[in-house]
Structure formats: structure tokens, C-alpha cells
User: Fold this.
Amino acid sequence: MRQHSAEDAYLFRHAMLREAAYQLQPPLDRALLHAAAFTLVEAAYGGPAPELPPPVTGRMQPMIPHRTDAVALELASHAELAQHVDLDIGMANAARRYIHRAACLATEQFRFHEAIGLWRRLAERLSGQPMLIALSRCGTAAKEWGDAALARRTLEELHEKAWAAGDQHMQGIALGELAQAMTAQGDLVAAEAAVRESIAMLRVLAVPRSLAASISGLANLLWRGGHADSAQALWREALELLAGQDPDDARAAILNNLAGCFGRLGNTAQAEPLFRQAMDIHQAQGQRHAVELVRMNLANLFAETGRVPQALTIYRQSVQALSGLGHRRLEGVALANLAAILFNTGEKYESEDLLLKAIAIHHEVGDNQRLAHALSTLMAVYQNSGRHELALATGQQTLELCRALGLKSDESTVLYNLASMAVDQKQLDQACALFEQAIAMQRQIGLPVKLAGSLCNYMHALLLLGRIDEARAAWLEGAALLKDFRDIADLKNKQRTMQKLCVECGIEPFGMPVRSGPVPPGPQA
Assistant:
């Protein structure tokens, strides 16, 4: 145990004495002390910072730096503690000014946990639409931090306040953003209802940027539910709405989504130019972290189309760039994605090392949703290297995390991974029970691609148990879903696996679906 020195004791007593002396001061004297401290600190850092314009809808404009930004929180705290006494020195305005600057700075530096509280504090000092926009920024920070539940509560509060104020524009924005938080929680039915209401409201108001954001949100939902054509049509509509405006981050985000859709469907020739166009827009606006996000999506496309060396080069560059930017959340994402590609290429040791670094970052920034993703990959690494107990413990930890956060899509993936582990361990009854849970959840929330994978692996467990007719039915449904989704490469891989398993079990391989089956229940365009 560490031995405390006389210096430690002095500092402890000094702090206690200082606090005791402070508490003995009358309220007026305390306020005067804080006002004096505010004046001295502000003067030492170059005098008052310029007033920022009230928050407005759309992308937050970069803030012109000022020397006081280094002590903005300290100045805000002194001003808040001095404001309750009528000294006619503008402490209430000063508190608002420095809280606003601190909130903008925390957002620009991706310190989303701090930004949540700062935007909330600013909202309490504003009124009208600026107050609603500050609350919206608070909800966005919670989403970026990975706390979908807090984001949902904040955006529900925003919607209520916008409704009470009769501000239909902010009601529409709130519903669109609320749908994103609901989606993160796996509540897709509520999310679709919210975003459709948002679109209806914003169409009447004819506000292109806000309307485009909500239309893109609906497209994301439909794409997630397997409705690729409907999603593409909506993304194109959103792009048309933004066509008369200067290229901005909203347009780039839509191009990124559309490119991802084309890439997933095997249309590389259309996907790559759209990714590059999105990167050019972000680059022109100086949004370096957004450039890296799109580059990582392009790297994923390279990996999926056999260009693994190029994908690895991009990811290594992105990790370095994001580390330099200080965007810890995206750095963690890049490390985990790089680890996943390395794992698929057999680089197990480096993959595990990078995953542990990514997990440490996700813990640091509190991004529990991406922590669940990284833990799921780590579980596969452990299983692949024969560390079954570690893999099982990691899987159970991930499952509990997903359930606590309400991440149903991720929960279904973990159930699928646990089921596949049980197959490897010849625990076939347990494997079937886990597959059935995953399949039921994927049907419920409309995840056709994940459902297809679960059905095809469920077939494996059923075959080993001798339940041939059920295995054939699972295969035909899974293969039909992949065919509907035009995932031909994955379909061919799974077909080869099925044929091999059937031969090993001494039966004729199953056929391919004669016709495309219906897409499972999910959001409809």
C-alpha cells in the first residue's frame, strides 16, 4: 500500500481548509469572489471571447478559436456562481456564452460525453427554436456516444417541447432523429412510424435539407429490412432535394449510403465512384473524420471483392489519421474493422491485439454499441484459436450487453455466433435452440440477410441430428432470401457448404429454390 507523505497530508488539509473557508463566506461575498476570478481569468486569456450566433438547424458551423477556449468551462462555472447576485456585470450572459463555446468545442473534438451535458446546460439558458436546437444537439451527442436509450429520451423530450411550442419544423426534425435512436435500439416498427410522420410534416413545410435527412432515414430502414429498390429510390429523391444547394455533409452521407447499397448488391462499378464523390465533398469541407469514415466503407468494399491488400492499406492509414485527429470513437471502429479483416486472412495474433485496443477505446469513450460489435469479433477469434471457454464467456458478456442496451439486431448476431460455437462442440440440441432464438428475432425485426445466414447454418445442425426435411426447408428459405437480396457470391459459398454437408451425411444435396420467395415481414415502402 502506498505510504502518504507529509506533503500529501498538507495538500489534503489545505484543500479542506480552503473549502471550509469558502463555505464560511456569505453568499454575496462568494458571488463577488467568483466574479473577480472570472474577470481575472478572462483577462489573462486575452479578454472576452466573441459571442456565437444562436444554434441553427443543419450542420454546426466551425467555431473561430479564441484563447479563452482553453478555460471555457472554468469561466462558465465562475459566471454561473456569480450570476445570482445583481451586480450588473452580465454574468448570466457570460455563462451562456462560455457554455455555448465549450459545447461547440467538445463536439468538434468528438468528446461526446462532455457535449451531452454542455448542450443540455445551454438549452436551459435559451428559449424558442435555439433552445430546441441545443436540445437536438444534446440528443445527437448521446447517439454519437453510443447511448441510444439516453438519445431516445432526449429526443422524445425535444418532440414534446417542439409540439408545445407549435414549432412544426423542429417537431419534424425531432421525429426523424428519434427514429434513428429507435433503430439503434432495434425498435424498427416505432422507428418507421416516427420517420414517416416526420416526412409527412416536413413535406408540407417544404424544408429541403430537413426533409432529405428524414427521407434518407427511411431509406436506411428499408435497406436494413431488405427492400433495396425502395431504399435506392428514396436516396435518389433525397439527393434531388439537395441538388440546388452547395455540396454538404448531408449530400455526402446519402451518397455514402447509396454506395454501400450498391456494393452490398455486388454493383462495384456504381459503388466506387459514389464513395469517392462523398469523400471529395467531405474533403472540400475540411471534414477529415468524415473522409476517413467513407474511406473505411470503401475499404470494406475492397475486402469483399478480393482486394484485401488495398483494404488493409486503407484501414492502417485511417487508424493513423484518426489517432492524429483525436477521434477516439472512430479510431476504435477502424481498429476493430481492421482486426476483422486480418482475422479473415488468418492473421490471428495481430487481429486479437487490435481488437483488445479497440475494446479499450470503446470502454474509454463509452461506446457500448460498438463495444458489443468488437466483443462479438473477439469471441470468434477465441473460438477459432481453440479457447472455447474464453469464447463462451465473451459471448455471454456480449449477449448481456446487447440486451441491456436493447440492441436486438446485435443480440441476434451473438445468438447466431453462440449457436455456431455449439455446432462446433457437437452440442446440437443447444445449437438448434440458439439458432431458433436468433431466427425468431431476425424475423420479428426484419433482417433478411442475417436471417438467411442463420437459416443456412441452422440447416447444418439439423442435418447432423438427422432432421432431413427440416434441414431442406431451412436451406430453401435461406437460399431464397439470398437470391431475393441478389447476394449471389454468398449464395454460391453457402451452396458449396450445403453440398459438402449433404455428401458427408450420405444424402443427395438439396436443390436451389425454384423461384424467389417473398421477403420476410418488415418495413414496406
About this structure: The first helix runs from residue 6 to 24. Residues 195 and 218 are 6 Å apart (CA to CA). The mean pLDDT is 84.
